[in-house]
């Protein structure tokens, strides 16, 4: 063992050494439909206007009052329920980590349905908390009785409920969610990352439950490259979690880009309408393909089951279309691919590649 390997073995946590870094697929030259990004770009006129705004930002100064203006703009855009506060994160990923950090008391644990967003379990592991995964039903609905039993047994500090879920893209039954919230002894985090494409939101019920936090992100709104998430909840609760947030976690460039986007929210709303229409088209055409089973979606992605996920994924790549092979993420996802909803042209190319790969 060389000196560096010896230091790594002694100094880096064993569980970290056994982990794999988050992998981003190489999309060069491909139709990129693997990461639930908004495929639409700003018009040249808006690009030029944004460029002028960003060029005038005082990069020599730490983020200051402009961050407060962004928080206020988001509170108006949502709109923020009375009695609630809003905090910002460098994407939802940072907020998930901060919640785990703030709740890291002896015996703390995190519970979430599986398959689900990988960062819930990862945040638990990195913070040294126990993670309890509860399998969904075979049709990707909440197993309410299993969830309630796990809550009663483990008394988790945090319960995550993605609304809609990733990678299954579906919304769960509201009555079941309400019963889980009532049973939870700790915090419940409703993750609405895909809210621009969803038919329902938890926002109007947020103020009823002071132990519930609601997370959203501007990534699916259309700013995946800006890395900006936000979380809402009772003022006293948000104030405690905000104490572990690093100072200046949102850059002045990110804040200015987000403010610009909110000023042009109508443009992004039009893009969301287009993507919802394209989602409906994809669901129709996927359902007509022999051997393909699509699941209902309230997000900008569609989960499909195919006869051979690996062969289909590789075949689509050979035809220049990149999607996500989730078939090995969880036993319930056997044979499944996750398809991002793209532009009309991208979706046509995806369907052509899928037919050829099948």
In words, what does this structure look like?
The protein is an alpha/beta fold. The chain folds into two domains: about 130 residues, Aspartate Aminotransferase, domain 1, CATH 3.90.1150.10; about 200 residues, 3-Layer(aba) Sandwich (Aspartate Aminotransferase, domain 2), CATH 3.40.640. Helix content is about 45%, strand content about 15%. It is built from 14 helices and 13 strands. A seven-stranded mixed beta sheet has the order 2-8-7-6-5-3-4. Strand 3, helix 6 and strand 4 form a beta-alpha-beta unit. The longest helix is centred in the last third of the chain and has 23 residues. The radius of gyration is 21 Å and the shape is globular. The mean pLDDT is about 95.
Largest sheet data: 7 strands, mixed
**Cross-sheet strand order for the largest sheet:** 2-8-7-6-5-3-4
Order of helices and strands: HHEHHEHEHEHEHEEHEHHHEEHEEEH
Specify the number of helices.
14
Task: Briefly note the CATH topology name of the largest domain.
Answer: Aspartate Aminotransferase, domain 2
Strand content: 15-25%
Mean pLDDT equals 96
Structural descriptors:
358 residues; alpha/beta; Aspartate Aminotransferase, domain 1; 13 strands; 43% helix
What is the topology?
Elements: H1 3-11, H2 14-17, E1 31-32, H3 44-55, H4 65-77, E2 84-89, H5 91-102, E3 109-114, H6 118-127, E4 130-135, H7 144-154, E5 158-162, H8 174-183, E6 187-191, E7 212-217, H9 219-223, E8 229-234, H10 235-242, H11 252-263, H12 265-287, E9 293-294, E10 301-305, H13 309-318, E11 321-322, E12 324-325, E13 336-340, H14 344-357
Parallel strand pairs: 1-11, 3-4, 3-5, 5-6, 6-7
Antiparallel strand pairs: 2-8, 7-8, 9-10, 10-13, 12-13
Helix pairs in contact: 4-11, 5-6, 7-8, 13-14
């Amino acid at each position: 063992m060389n000196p560096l390997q010896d230091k790594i073995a002694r100094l880096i946590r064993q569980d970290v050494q056994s982990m794999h870094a988050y992998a981003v697929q190489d999309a060069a030259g491909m139709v990129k439909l693997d990461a639930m990004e908004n495929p639409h770009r700003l018009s040249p006129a808006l690009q030029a206007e944004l460029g002028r705004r960003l060029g005038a930002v005082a990069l020599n100064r730490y983020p200051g009052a402009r961050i407060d203006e962004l928080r206020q703009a988001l509170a108006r855009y949502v709109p923020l329920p009375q009695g609630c506060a809003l905090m910002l994160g460098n994407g939802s990923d940072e907020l998930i980590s901060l919640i785990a950090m703030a709740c890291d008391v002896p015996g703390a644990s995190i519970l979430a349905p599986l398959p689900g967003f990988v960062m819930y379990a990862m945040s638990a592991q990195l913070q040294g908390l126990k993670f309890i995964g509860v399998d969904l039903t075979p049709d990707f609905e909440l197993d309410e009785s299993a969830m309630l039993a796990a809550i009663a047994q483990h008394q988790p500090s945090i319960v995550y409920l993605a609304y809609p879920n990733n990678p299954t893209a579906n919304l769960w039954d509201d009555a079941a969610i309400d019963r889980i919230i009532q049973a939870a002894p700790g915090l419940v985090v409703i993750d609405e990352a895909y809210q621009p494409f969803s038919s329902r939101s938890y926002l109007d019920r947020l103020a009823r439950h002071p132990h519930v936090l609601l997370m959203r992100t501007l990534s699916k709104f259309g700013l995946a490259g800006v890395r900006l998430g936000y979380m809402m909840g009772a003022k006293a609760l948000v104030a405690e979690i905000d104490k572990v947030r690093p100072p200046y976690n949102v850059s002045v460039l990110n804040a200015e880009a987000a403010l610009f986007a909110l000023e042009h929210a109508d443009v992004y709303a039009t893009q969301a309408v287009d993507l919802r229409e394209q989602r409906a088209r994809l669901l129709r055409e996927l359902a007509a393909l022999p051997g393909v089973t699509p699941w209902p979606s309230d997000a900008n992605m569609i989960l499909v089951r195919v006869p051979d996920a690996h062969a289909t994924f590789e075949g689509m790549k050979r035809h220049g279309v990149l999607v996500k092979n989730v078939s090995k993420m969880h036993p319930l996802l056997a044979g499944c691919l996750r398809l991002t909803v793209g532009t009309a042209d991208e979706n046509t190319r995806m369907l052509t590649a899928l037919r050829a790969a099948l």
